[in-house]
Prior knowledge:
InterPro entries: AspA/AstE_fam (IPR050178), Aspartoacylase (IPR016708), AstE_AspA_cat (IPR055438), Aste_AspA_hybrid_dom (IPR007036)
Radius of gyration: 20 Å
CATH architecture of the largest domain: 3-Layer(aba) Sandwich
CATH superfamily of the largest domain: Zn peptidases
Structural class: alpha/beta
Keywords: Hydrolase, Metal-binding, Zinc
Number of helices: 7
Shape: globular
Cofactor: Zn(2+)
Pfam families: AstE_AspA_cat (PF24827), AstE_AspA_hybrid (PF04952)
Low-confidence stretches: 1-17
GO molecular function, one term: hydrolase activity, acting on ester bonds
Helix content: 25-40%
Amino acid sequence: MRYVLTFLRLCLLRAVACKRIVVVGGTxxxxxxxxxxxxxxxATPALDNVEPFLANTRAIALNRRFCDEDLNRCFSRARxxxxxxxxxxxxxxxxxxxxxxxxSPAAADLVVDLxxxxxxxxxxxxxxxxxxxxxxxxxxxxxxxxxxxxxFNDIRDKAASPxxxxxxxxxxQIEVGPTPQGLVRADVVAATRAALEAVVEFATLDGDDVAxxxxxxxxxxxxxxxxxxxxxxxxxxxxxxxxEALQDRDWAPLAAGDGLFRxxxxxxxxxxxxxxxxxxxxxxxxxxxxxxxxxxxxGLAKKLTLRVPRRGxxxxxxxx
Length: 320
């Protein structure tokens, strides 16, 4: 029996070796956890079949989210095909050529993009509706690691996805917070590494014999610009702060009448319920969302139950 198991393991490793798994850090140049882990993998490879990749190298050197525009909004097919004179547009073309091209059979099998947030999000696996593999993987990670949440972007057209990871045949993002920008914390590195290791483990095992739940609870959003925008002045600087009762309460329900912002003079701006009741605020006071090109404001999601797709399914679907 021992020899049979050894033979099967060797067969699995050979199959996995055919996969190209790219782990990306520094898509946002001041999110140093991903940069740290990619540099660690470059210095001391610790995960088989993983190719480390640094994304926005110019912004990393400057300790800035981006130079001209948010790189993680540059990967829809339309934007890739529209020339723009920005640092990020040029880098997006290089990344698409290196890891894609997007939609091509030559693209990397899986792109995992590592992010951090200043918001109290914990460990979150972000998947797009066009990628059933990502939802299967997220369900696996959630079952393995306590406290992991799934954020489901209801983007069903891969070509329309603006995110860097979408250049891969399959794609997901790992988001961990809270942590300040431009520094490295041991606990956030450890949480990100644990999620990444679980993702790579699943990518090596993916099959219908992998034990997965039939359904998962997820938080659904229309994407990066589905936000409650805070008021700003002519310079784009906020003229209100996140309400003290809302701060750090990511994933908690928000109902009509609950405090949303406080203005300069201390007046409360309540949530008006226009986008549903309840909704679930996410990325509350995320520093990156002070930028217009990243989509200003507080993210909003709805809670839903998703059917975990079978291997090879064409799309993700809500449970009946």
